[in-house]
Design goal:
- The chain contains 8 helices and 6 strands; from the N terminus they run ααααββαααβαβββ.
- It is of the alpha+beta class.
- The protein folds into 2 domains: 61 residues; 130 residues, no CATH class.
- β5 and β6 form a beta hairpin.
- α3 runs antiparallel to α4.
- It is globular.
């Protein structure tokens, strides 16, 4: 396939994705039903550490399940202090879980409103993503929201290849790419942060191209695994947060 044919085919795919998003936005709730939010959304406020937040959520659901079960069992024998303590734990856990649902839904509204279709090129991913499955696992994409680069997948792929080569090399990394290469190593591979790092205009020719840490959803992949480098994604251009893969068919 020639570069021109690749570009034309990719432009058609992006256009199809954008048309689908437009149609989904016509019916309230349809976009939420069709597309999940990314693991991390930038709310503009200081965010709790992602791992701590996840742990608290997990503990709240565990408190609901275990506390509820223990409360029922205890109620069969006594309604004294032990019962009241277990009932309190269950109610507090339930309240926290409900608050999280409300908070996440409120944070998602502007994300669904402002997100756009863009192009992502694979940089690095969890090894299990290269085998068929239905998991959600971390990795990194070179994502551009620049319209000109969106329409030039060959150039985007070349930029991604340069980043990967500098990351794999033992030699010195050019100063302009040092932050991005370190971000891939520290914030994508070592401890996924589900944030992004802007690449310099001197490298990309624009101010809207990023290394993005995201959760790769295998259910959004046509064959259930990473079998290609280029992916249509959905996200906000101006927020320090992840993006999501758009479901596509072969």
């Amino acid at each position: 396939m020639s570069d021109q044919e690749l570009a034309q085919g990719w432009q058609q795919l992006l256009s199809s994705c954008r048309n689908r998003i437009t149609e989904l936005r016509k019916t309230p709730g349809e976009l939420r039903s069709a597309i999940d939010t990314p693991i991390r959304i930038d709310t503009g406020k200081p965010q709790t550490n992602a791992r701590l937040q996840g742990l608290l959520t997990l503990l709240s659901w565990a408190g609901i399940l275990l506390g509820g079960l223990a409360t029922v069992i205890t109620a069969l024998f006594t309604t004294g202090l032990a019962f009241q303590i277990l009932l309190g734990i269950t109610l507090v856990s339930l309240a926290y879980a409900v608050l999280e649902i409300i908070r996440n839904r409120a944070a998602a509204a502007p994300w669904y409103r402002d997100s756009v279709v863009a192009t992502g090129c694979l940089l690095v991913a969890n090894d299990n993503l290269f085998e068929p499955g239905d998991s959600l696992l971390p990795g990194g994409l070179l994502v551009t929201f620049d319209e000109q680069l969106n329409n030039d997948p060959e150039k985007l792929s070349a930029l991604a290849q340069q980043l990967k080569e500098h990351g794999d090399s033992d030699g010195p990394t050019p100063l302009e790419l040092r932050e991005a290469v370190e971000f891939i190593e520290e914030s994508v591979i070592n401890v996924p942060t589900f944030t992004r790092c802007r690449l310099p205009r001197s490298f990309t020719g624009n101010d809207a191209t990023f290394v993005v840490c995201l959760g790769f959803d295998q259910k959004a992949m046509p064959n259930g695994f990473l079998d290609r480098d280029l992916w249509p994604v959905f996200g906000r251009p101006d927020k320090d947060e992840a993006v999501v893969l758009l479901k596509q068919s072969d």
